User: Which sequence fits this backbone?
């Protein structure tokens, strides 16, 4: 679970100019829906998720992938018996494109593995077969975080959902944001608000494992490309305004006639997202 913006920004004077908290839960759901809609339209997820996927080798030296940030393990089914008995070492392959840098602000994802000609191991090709490679790792367009200097003020169990911070969360950690503490992703359900120092979260989201959090652990926030952030604000804000009008297909008559709102994804949003769209993924991906 993630969104590409947060409630405080959506409610701000530059977008909806909404005060109070009565609509907060609905606004968070709108941000979630808009973020998912954007990912579907792009054929990729911008936010990183942890998971394990299987791919088909074609007998060559390249293995095409979905968007990838990093690899934890790479396993091979050498005889197509459904058992992944052979592990590849990091030195056995390169991630490509070589200079993708998906953990930097201007980076892009890795999209294939290439057999390394420099390895001293025995791997020299991705064997032809169906679903004969299993990769565990972090997947998505980018994984970029911002450290704010905030820490967890006391230790937490793996199931605790209220986190008290070492400083104020006001204006820094708000509902809709995703935090990273260690290797665990935590989705913020209610943020610091006007004066708060505590946030309520959903633990172990996006494939990450919920774990005990030690007192003093640093808190980081996931950030996203500006065009993605702006797109989700436009789409969520537009849906909120339409909801206020009971999703009417026509507005009141004007001097120039009846105004009919544009349905579907906003044209400005489509323009913002064009540079991030990936062709539909085919068989074996």
Assistant:
């Amino acid at each position: 679970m993630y969104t590409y913006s947060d409630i405080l920004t959506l409610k701000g004077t530059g977008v909806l100019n909404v005060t109070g908290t009565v609509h907060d839960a609905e606004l968070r759901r709108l941000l979630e829906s808009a973020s998912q809609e954007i990912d579907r339209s792009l054929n990729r997820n911008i936010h990183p998720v942890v998971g394990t996927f299987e791919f088909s080798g074609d007998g060559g030296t390249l293995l095409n992938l979905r968007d990838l940030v990093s690899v934890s393990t790479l396993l091979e089914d050498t005889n197509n018996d459904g058992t992944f008995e052979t592990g590849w070492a990091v030195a056995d392959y390169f991630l490509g494109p070589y200079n993708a840098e998906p953990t930097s602000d201007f980076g892009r994802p890795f999209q294939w593995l290439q057999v390394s000609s420099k390895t001293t191991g025995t791997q020299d090709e991705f064997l032809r077969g169906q679903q004969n490679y299993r990769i565990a790792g972090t997947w998505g367009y980018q994984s970029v975080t911002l450290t704010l200097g905030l820490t967890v003020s006391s230790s937490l169990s793996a199931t605790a959902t209220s986190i008290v911070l070492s400083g104020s969360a006001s204006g820094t950690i708000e509902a809709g944001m995703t935090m990273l503490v260690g290797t665990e992703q935590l989705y913020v359900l209610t943020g610091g608000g006007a004066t708060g120092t505590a946030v309520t979260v959903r633990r172990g989201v996006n494939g990450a494992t919920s774990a005990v959090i030690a007192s003093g652990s640093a808190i980081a926030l996931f950030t996203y490309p500006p065009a993605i952030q702006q797109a989700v604000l436009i789409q969520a804000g537009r849906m909120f305004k339409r909801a206020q009008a009971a999703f009417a297909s026509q507005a009141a008559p004007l001097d120039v006639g009846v105004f009919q709102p544009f349905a579907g994804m906003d044209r400005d949003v489509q323009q913002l997202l064009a540079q991030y769209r990936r062709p539909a993924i085919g068989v074996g991906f």
Residues 49-139 form one domain. Residues 24-42 form the longest helix (19 residues). The chain has two domains: 7-45+143-223, 49-139.
